[in-house]
Specification:
The structure holds 3 protein chains of 3 kinds. By secondary structure, chain A is an alpha+beta fold. Chain A has 2 domains: 10-66 and 220-296, D-Maltodextrin-Binding Protein, domain 2, CATH 3.40.190; 69-217 and 299-340, Periplasmic binding protein-like II (D-Maltodextrin-Binding Protein, domain 2). Chain A has 15 helices and 9 strands. Helix content of chain C is 75%, strand content 1%. Classes of the chains: A alpha+beta, B mainly alpha, C mainly alpha.
Chain lengths: 341, 289, 322
């Protein structure tokens, strides 16, 4: 649309890469002047806004932040007589729990991993130190081995099956035979909506993602959805007023009321989020709304697309069992090094 | 002599038996192949009557537990499918007419007329078929935009009505029509235009039918073109509209199957109605070596 | 006197020739105009682009880089380095372009003959059996259905424990892996779907062609004592040579350009096992936003196809009827 000369005032930014692309191509209006002039306080973004800056120039404001949580099917746990997952589990405990509940009553799978790399290995960035762009991927080994072990023990649906059937994660969880699923927070709104449409009828809740031993509980990773102003817009000032309201303290509460998680972090927002109809009414789920630390899923980089291509290709090789994990990691290191050369 | 007749009858009987076995085998193979070809369609029909989460259930249920016939109604409500159909029909019909006319016109020149640069020009045509559309898509897009055709149905017409493929196909078919016929007509005083209009059509009905089918189907099923050039919802075509059922955060595979099946209908009608041109075997028509 | 007349005729065209040429051009004009504007010009631009660098942004950002793009996609330096080390196949095993080339060529070499044979066989069979129309419609259906539906459906059928694997196991072959999850079988999955889809299409073309073979030729052959197979080899095949020329060129080009099937069924996975030339082009052009490089890859494709086409074209002139 932008290449077509569209004059819409604002555009939603879904991928970090888009910010870079549009900034490079001159479609996005730099926001630094507006921020300075209106005294907009960026602290509510808890350090996520640099992800929308290219060369220290802010091009977009974070609108929604969809960090990852663990969804679980309360009904299945009740039926099996097993305690719910908590906000403070290690990955080992998570694996044990999944193995325990698999096969009990109507539970077919203890957990479900979607096919994305972010659903399997991205958890490595939760420690706030490792990233997907540093060219060093041995931190992913732990998670690949975890996922493949769980496949082998029958606790999760095999990757090849999910991929071949193009099974959507909402379909997987909503069949009601899967006990747990790590997924992005955006899924809450879908779940609430789908219940209204009668697509399922079990109870569910959320907890924080499991963590590694040396990583604090409540750490997560996530992605941002942002808004930017079109350089070709005829109403840039009005646009700024709108997006600064939308992403700031007031607009974020409105967003929260629809069940979506705004990027802005505040206790008011958390309250609104928890009060949306259909939101699980337990303390755990509410506590999951306030992550202690959110790392970005994958940052911006000049060669982001190429790195992503390499990582995704190796991801499929590892998950289909075509090469073993150690080899796969080595390939990632080697090929990304070539890209970065 | 009696012996020879007996042997003759024997051979004929054996031949008849062999023929029967051969025929039966042929039918068995054909039917087997046909079933193999149809399996995905049976799956499509069965999926179109399920709920989305049932579509990919691991143990395939060919006959759904509950037949959700309302899916076929839902597809018209969830997205403006009727508008999409109208747009697609418009594009398909206009492109087919334009393509058939201009291609057969040009193909006649390549096949039956001699002029300077004929072969080089033809090679030029074929080479453009070789370039993947993704490669020249951008310059094409920039050009369309500057001419003001962006987001109009005419853009799709412009892109598809003048393809090299049609010219190539018709030229091959025309090559099969004996040149003597054309010569005779020329001697009789018929102009080249006359030959094109009077002599060629009766002899190339199968060819024209083929081109019509392929152009119609190709345009009807085109996805990339409409996706890039048509942004307004009111302009979109069926294939693009179908994708609305699969978004990143939700998917309605059952509806996609239902809508795909419905969109198969117009094409099937076109195909079936043109079948008669394939059955009429005119002795010296169509393609020859 | 005779000499000068001859000399005069050789210079320039006669009035008749000029008139014929004009008429020919008038036939070409409607199609050629549209073709030139909407297809030829962009293609020429794309060719030029392969020598330029354009990574998004406005048109003024384009700059000439000569053969740099080609050096980059062929990874000339790295390949030379590895060659010196004795690793001769580095290009085909590790470089994106080499892998894409290898996959695409393999795919083409297998799919083209398979499809041709299947479609001729079908056309012959459906030229005279009862219920031909019904059969033809059935076999043409795959070409007509939407790619999304087809690929999704086949993916499902080729899964572990799916119907296809069950049939294979029933035949005693011990294979039960999801086709698209296996580096080797993913390619065969794509070949299978492609042949399944195209055989109906080319069957229709061959049907039209078969209509034109004069019955007298067959009758003459029968009188001469030729059996069905000999008739096929000596009457049918030669008569439909122009069609075979057309079909094989379109098939080869189509195979080199394959995109949809791969994008929907395997997305190039596992790893790069089904990375084809056009999926590679698409990735570079629309994910990495490097239009110059994408054009360079397209040029490689174009040159390959041109070579094949010219060879076939030269062969065709021997058999053309004009």
């Amino acid at each position: 649309m932008l290449s077509g000369g569209d004059t819409s005032d604002i555009f939603m930014v879904k991928e970090n890469l888009d910010v870079m692309k549009w900034a490079q191509q001159g479609f996005a209006k730099p926001l630094t002047d507006y921020i300075a002039n209106s005294g907009f306080d960026m602290s509510g973004f808890v350090g996520m806004e640099p992800n929308y800056a290219v060369d220290d120039v802010q091009y977009a404001l974070p609108f929604r932040s969809d960090f990852w949580v663990l969804f679980y099917n309360k009904t299945l746990f009740d039926e099996a007589g097993i305690a719910y997952p908590t906000n403070d589990m290690t990955w080992e405990q998570y694996e044990a729990l999944a193995n325990e509940i698999t096969g009990k009553s109507s539970c077919k799978y203890g957990a479900h991993n979607h096919t994305w790399l972010s659903a399997v290995a991205n958890f490595a960035v939760c420690d706030g130190v490792n990233t997907l762009l540093d060219g060093e991927y041995s931190d992913l080994q732990y998670f690949y081995e975890l996922a493949l072990r769980m496949e082998a023990s029958g606790a999760i649906r095999p990757y090849t099956e999910v991929k071949a059937a193009n099974l959507h994660y909402s379909g997987a969880f909503q069949t009601g035979d899967t006990a747990m699923m790590p997924m992005g927070y955006w899924y809450v709104a879908t779940l609430i909506n789908n219940r209204k449409e009668g697509l399922y009828d079990f109870d569910w809740g959320t907890t924080a993602l499991p963590h590694k031993d040396d990583v604090p509980a409540g750490s997560s990773f996530g992605n941002l959805t942002g808004v930017m102003i079109n350089k070709a817009s005829q109403n840039k000032d009005l646009a700024w007023e709108y997006i600064s309201w939308l992403c700031g303290p007031e607009g974020s509460q409105v967003t929260a009321a629809t069940g979506n998680r705004p990027a802005w972090v505040s206790s008011e927002v958390a309250d609104v989020l928890a009060s949306v109809e259909g939101f699980p009414a337990d303390e755990n789920s509410k506590a999951a709304l306030i992550p202690t630390q959110v790392s970005i899923e994958i940052g911006t980089h000049e060669k982001l697309a190429e790195i992503q291509t390499v990582l995704n290709e190796e991801h499929t090789m590892i998950m289909t069992g075509e090469i073993d994990v150690a080899e796969g990691i080595e390939e990632m290191n080697e090929r990304v090094a070539e890209v970065l050369e | 002599m009696a012996q020879a007749t007996v042997t003759g009858k024997q051979i004929r009987k054996d031949n008849a038996a062999m023929q029967l076995v051969g025929n039966v085998l042929l039918y068995v193979v054909l039917i087997g192949l046909a079933i193999f070809t149809l399996i995905p369609f049976v799956w499509m029909i069965s999926s179109s009557l399920k709920l989305d989460q049932e579509v990919f259930q691991y143990s395939i249920r060919w006959i759904p537990e509950v037949c959700h016939w309302e899916n076929y109604q839902l597809i018209w409500e969830k997205v403006p499918l009727l508008t999409y159909f109208k747009n697609t029909a418009f594009i398909a019909i206009v492109v087919t007419i334009l393509q058939t006319l201009t291609s057969s016109f040009a193909a006649y020149a390549f096949a039956k007329l001699h002029f300077k640069g004929r072969d080089v020009l033809f090679l030029c045509y074929i080479s453009t078929i070789a370039v993947p559309w993704q490669a020249y898509m951008l310059p094409q897009f920039i050009m369309m935009r500057s001419v003001g055709l962006y987001d109009t149905l005419w853009a799709m017409v412009a892109l598809q009505a003048f393809s090299a493929f049609g010219v190539f196909l018709m030229r091959q078919f025309y090559q099969g029509i004996p040149t003597d016929l054309c010569e005779a007509a020329r001697i009789d005083g018929l102009s080249e235009y006359g030959i094109w209009a009077r002599i060629m059509p009766p002899l190339s009905k199968a060819a024209i039918a083929t081109l019509v089918i392929f152009t119609f189907v190709g345009t009807w099923n085109d996805y990339m073109g409409p996706m890039i050039y048509l942004t307004q919802d009111a302009n979109k075509t069926v294939q693009v509209g179908l994708r609305r059922f699969i978004q990143e955060y939700s998917s309605d595979y059952h509806l996609i199957m239902a809508a795909s099946l419905v969109s198969l209908l117009p094409v099937s009608i076109v195909f079936l109605s043109l079948q008669k041109y394939f059955i009429e075997g005119i002795a010296t028509s169509g393609l020859k070596g | 006197m005779a000499e000068s007349t001859v000399k005069r005729r050789k210079r320039g065209m006669s009035r008749l020739e000029r008139k014929n040429t004009l008429i020919a051009y008038s036939f070409l004009a409607p199609n050629f105009l549209g073709f030139a504007i909407f297809t030829l010009v962009p293609v020429v631009c794309a060719i030029l682009l392969s020598f330029m660098e354009w990574n998004g942004g406005s048109i003024s950002a384009i700059k000439w880089v000569g053969l740099d793009n080609f050096a980059e996609i062929f990874k000339v330096e790295k390949v030379a380095e590895k060659w010196a080390e004795g690793n001769y196949f580095y290009f085909f095993n590790r470089v994106d372009l080499g892998i894409a080339l290898k996959n695409t060529v393999f795919y083409t070499v297998v799919t083209v003959p398979l499809t041709l044979v299947c479609s001729i066989a079908l056309a012959l069979a459906l030229n005279k059996v009862k219920g031909a129309v019904a059969f033809r419609t059935v076999f043409f259906f795959p070409y007509v259905a939407s790619m999304v539906a087809i690929c999704v459906c086949w993916n499902f059928m080729l899964m572990k424990d799916g119907p296809i694997n069950q049939m294979i196991m029933a035949l005693g072959i011990n294979f039960n892996k999801s086709w698209t999850a296996d580096s080797t079988m993913a390619m065969w999955a794509i070949i299978l779907v492609s042949v399944w889809r195209s055989m109906g299409y080319y069957m229709v073309i061959y049907l039209a062609a078969l209509q034109g073979v004069p019955r007298e030729l067959y009758e003459a052959a029968t009188v001469d004592g030729a059996n069905k197979w000999q008739q096929f080899l000596n009457v049918t095949l030669p008569q439909i040579k122009p069609t075979t020329f057309f079909c094989s060129i379109m098939l080869i080009i189509g195979c080199f350009k394959i995109y949809d099937t791969v994008a929907i069924m395997t997305e190039g996975s596992p790893g790069r096992a089904t990375k084809m030339l056009v999926t590679y082009i698409y990735d570079v052009a629309f994910n990495q936003i490097k239009y110059g490089i994408a054009s360079a890859i397209s040029m490689v494709l174009l040159i390959l196809v041109l070579i094949v086409t010219v060879i076939q074209f030269a062969n065709e002139k021997k058999f053309a009827n004009v």
